[in-house]
Amino acid sequence: MYNILLCDDERDIVSALRIYLSNQDYNFFEAYNGREALEVLRNEDIDLCLMDVMMPQMDGIEALSELRKFSNIPVIFLSAKSEDTDKVLGLNLGADDYVTKPFNPVELIARVKSQLRRYTLLGSAPKQADVIRIDGIELLCDTKKVTVDGEAVQLTPKEFEILKFLMLSPGTCFSPAEIYRNVWGEVPIGVDNAIAVHIRHIREKIEIDPAAPRYLKVVWGRGYKFER
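Request: output the structure for the sequence above.
Response:
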């Protein structure tokens, strides 16, 4: 089953999209502006996004620009505009297709299927890495082994998963709640201190000077990131 994110500030359009695509093997997530869309995209395993261009708070163009910093999933833009310049702008920023409202449901379904086929069958979907290597840190995913500058270090299973999660998106800051949701797979409630303790333990094992970390950085008021 594919996970599809439907993003449009008009709830009637989101509902219509669900109806048009409901007979397919899809699971749906919803967002009503670019900020909400990015939150879903960071926290859920989304396979394709249908996104409106003109939205409040953050429009589709800006959301796509941020999305392409951490994901290459197919994005199909939805817009009431038909000018070629808007289509070119979206495609140049990394959109995979462009559908003008009002759209033909049969055509929309075909475009969604085409993009999913390209993404999953033709090799665009990211494969789980057996080895993750950034600078002096190397993770062996099958055996859960970690080396720092060639020296083995011992991480607990949760420490390994946290480090792996952050290393898969170097430079991207994740809140404690986002880390907990992705590593534990549970709803995060009051997890800030627990994540801080795990981060401190990981630093003690992989950093030369845990008090002045080279890799695991805190972004004050936001969360943590793995820095190249």
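Residues 105-121 form the longest helix (17 residues).
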